[in-house]
Amino acid sequence: MNTFKEYWKVQQGHEIFEKKASLSQAEILEIQKKIAEMQKKGFNSDRIISALQRFNGKLSERYKAERAYWTEVKSKDTELIGEAGEELDISKYKVILSPNACPICREKTQQGSKVFKGADLEKAGYGHVPPFHPNCYCIMYPVE
Fold it and tell me: How far apart are CA 125 and CA 141, in angstroms?
């Protein structure tokens, strides 16, 4: 799995800027664990995000905690869609682009026409399938 720093890249024009306060793999795993624990207890997203702000100093600013939470939730959603597809013996997936999809999403999905394979879901790190970037709203779904 890549570090948070490698995933949280921002492109403006032809320049790419990396966030300086990166999370290590261990921190990402702890954040994922914290989210899962709180979801099991039935806490809503607002409460989980507030807890993340206190849990890791790098997420103390609300927008950073929100970005981490929603990106991890989207990542888990994609994982569950892959598991469901596997159970149904489906190995191809497409992406529904957000109505306001960014250039990154449009490029990675070939304007929503690209067919992803089950192996794409199993690649390590972020960005191979939704979420393609922080706060990505694209949705992956199985196709026959």
Answer: 19
CB proximity list for 40: less than 8 A, separation 6 or greater: none
Burial class (CB in 10 A: 0-12, 13-18, 19+), 144: exposed
| Helices marked H in the chain | 4-7, 25-40, 45-55, 62-87, 103-108, 118-121
R_g of the chain computed on alpha carbons? 16
The residues, ordered by sequence, that sit 6+ positions from 111 with a Cβ below 8 Å of its Cβ are: 97
> Tens-of-pLDDT digits for all 144 residues of the chain?
333 443 445 454 555 444 445 788 888 889 999 999 999 999 999 999 999 999 999 999 999 999 999 988 988 898 899 899 889 999 999 999 988 889 989 999 999 999 999 888 887 666 789 988 888 889 999 997
Q: Nearest CA to 95 among 75, 79, 117, 116?
A: 116
The reported pTM is 0.75
126: left (phi over 0), alpha (psi -120 to 50) or beta: beta
